[in-house]
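Need tokens for this chain, all 151 residues.
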Amino acid sequence: MTVQRKTLAKGTLIKLSIVGGTLADYGRIETFQPPTKDYEVVEVPELNPVNDAGTDIDNDPTELGDEIMGEFSFVHYWDPLHADADKLDDWWAAKTEITVNLVTPHATTPASLTFNAKIKTLAPAQLAKKDYFKRTVTLIRTSSIVTAAPA
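Here are the structure tokens for all 151 residues:
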């Protein structure tokens, strides 16, 4: 098996839509923290339990509970006067569930991550001289992550 080297953060395309809507290019992102896949650990009896005589007794294996819907954050180039900025603000205010599609910038073998989420935070970045407007968008995942070749 050959493993290809890939760069994900700079140049990754993000597509957003209301759930069930048509995904539209939203823009390139500067950096992002990929969404996690994590389970809640359920309390189980002690590991390696023994009876009063010190003899080992059977114990339950470690149990994993429901999936924890983690957060996903990205730094977005942002123009406060552009219609797309209003779209995120509107979705945030209405607590709208959206579909997120991340597409890697590789022409020959692109891949995508798709999941549903709600916008938790819209945090403008500190302004710097001769720099772009940016903001950090934090989403809470509301569905499982699907990995596939982009459509």
